[in-house]
Design goal:
With 466 residues, the protein is of the alpha/beta class. 54% of the residues lie in helices and 12% in strands.
């Protein structure tokens, strides 16, 4: 991969997070930044684009307000990704900037509001976690006025150390051969150490030296003495050092090198994988099916009917390729809730899908996938769509109806044989046409379709059967 353009703006949304809500000033900074990005995108004209939000938007109660305006500015959907997905993408970005060898690596990225830790080998991450500590949130908590004292530093260090203890045993038990720091805070620490000592490797001695320097400085304004430290990094530098020291001490790290790769590069490589039909989401769905013991024959039977229905409804209902993928994944895992109980298994399935760590999926995609599985049987729960933006409701209802019909045919095909039909659709009307006399000879299919007519009528849809 050869970058042709890269642009970065420092917004620090996390600094505007108060009592779980993003303030207007912070959101305004974000919108101004996105307007600049929109100009760059309009000039570059990319054919593939993915926009993601991370920790601050995961934490903000009013994240939807920011997302709606951001999407209007960019003209593109904004996906809020989980901490685990954040970590997976960071590892992918780092791995592609390092030598392709067999060493196991611990990759760490200290962000504004969270810190991601990943152990992996080559391009595959094996153990991932996300901790609630970041250089911006710790700056606000421990160095709010820009004052730096050893007492404040120790408080920040102890807080970070307690966070590290939550994952210490798991990560040490897994083990690694090399520690690598991702872009941002750790690159800034490396740059200062290189300027001070001639080596960009991060060590325990080097961190102790930096701690002494920043505590002696007394205020972030004095940190301009570090010539290589960019101005926008000064305010978060003490917090970043405290977090890094806690990680070194808690995990027993002696030395760490840094990589220029990170989340941004990981997103690009993930997009390239999707374009090359090496989509991690396919592996995620397969793994979920295997863990839950999903009946493969049933899943494939529903997927076959889903494809048939999808192709007939795709053009009139304007179903995108992305929605088609989502629908087919829902078909594959619609029975995942059976791993908990048969009763209400569609509800169990929704819970599992929405709350599991699903590599490659954003939080909103998991929510939509869970909704499809929840709505695939019994009454059509119209109220469950209320939490989605108005322009998404009808398209999601369309997808749900196609999955319901595919599941319906699954139940009757083993008894009455595979039906042959033609589906015609309009906005809220569907017509299923069968060969003349076929339904008369297949009363079970007819009974199921008549029940579905009643369910859909209650949801303000009309199903005609000919």
């Amino acid at each position: 991969m050869r970058p042709v353009h890269a642009h970065r703006e420092k917004v620090q949304l996390a600094a505007g997070l108060k009592k779980g809500r993003l303030g207007e000033a912070a959101m305004a900074r974000g919108f101004d930044c996105l307007k600049q990005f929109r100009q760059i995108l309009d000039g570059a004209g990319p054919t593939h684009l993915r926009v993601v939000g991370t920790n601050t938007l995961r934490a903000a109660k009013n994240a939807a307000d920011f997302v709606n305006e951001a999407e209007a500015i960019l003209g593109q959907p904004l996906e809020i990704i989980s901490g685990i997905e954040d970590a997976r993408l960071i590892y992918l970005g780092v791995a592609h900037t390092l030598a392709d060898d067999e060493q196991s690596r611990l990759v760490i990225d200290i962000g504004g509001g969270s810190t991601e830790l990943i152990i992996g080998r080559r391009f595959q991450s094996d153990l991932l976690d996300s901790l609630y500590m970041g250089c911006v949130s710790y700056r606000e908590q421990f160095f709010p006025e820009g004052n730096i004292s050893r007492k404040c530093f120790e408080k920040a260090y102890r807080s970070a150390y307690l966070e590290v203890l939550k994952v210490r045993d798991t990560f040490i038990r897994k083990g690694w051969e090399e520690a690598v720091g991702s872009a941002g805070t750790l690159n800034a620490i490396s740059a200062v150490l290189r300027d001070e000592s001639g080596s960009g490797l991060i060590t325990t001695d080097g961190l102790s030296l930096l701690r002494d320097h920043v505590c002696e400085a007394g205020h972030i304004d004095v940190l301009k003495k570090f010539a290589v430290l960019k101005p926008h990094r000064r305010s978060t530098f003490p917090a970043g050092i405290a977090i890094t020291m806690a990680l070194f001490d808690g995990l027993g790290i002696d030395i760490m090198r840094v990589s220029p790769g990170g989340l941004r590069e990981g997103l690009v490589y993930d997009l390239m994988g999707r374009m090359a039909h090496e989509d991690v989401r396919e592996r995620t769905i397969l793994a979920m099916k295997e863990r839950a013991g999903v009946d493969q024959a049933n899943a494939e039977r529903v997927a076959v009917f889903t494809r048939v229905l999808l192709e007939q409804a795709r053009e009139p209902w304007r179903i995108s390729d992305a929605d088609g993928e989502l629908l087919l994944w829902a078909a594959q895992i619609h029975e995942v809730g059976l791993s908990i109980a048969h009763s209400q298994f569609h509800k169990h399935g929704q819970y599992l899908i929405e709350n599991a760590d699903l590599p490659g999926f954003s939080r909103n995609q998991q929510r939509q996938l869970g909704l499809l599985v929840r709505c695939h049987r019994r009454k059509f729960p119209v109220n469950l769509f209320d939490g989605f933006p108005g322009d998404q409701v009808l398209r999601l209802q369309h997808l749900c109806i196609l999955l319901r019909l595919a599941v319906l045919f699954k139940y009757v095909v083993s008894i009455e044989g595979e039906p042959r039909f033609q589906l015609d659709v309009q906005d809220r009307r569907l017509t299923l046409k069968f060969d003349r006399g076929w339904l008369d000879k297949h009363p079970l299919t007819m009974a199921e379709l008549e029940q579905e007519q009643r369910y859909l009528k209650a949801a303000d849809f009309k199903l005609d059967i000919i």
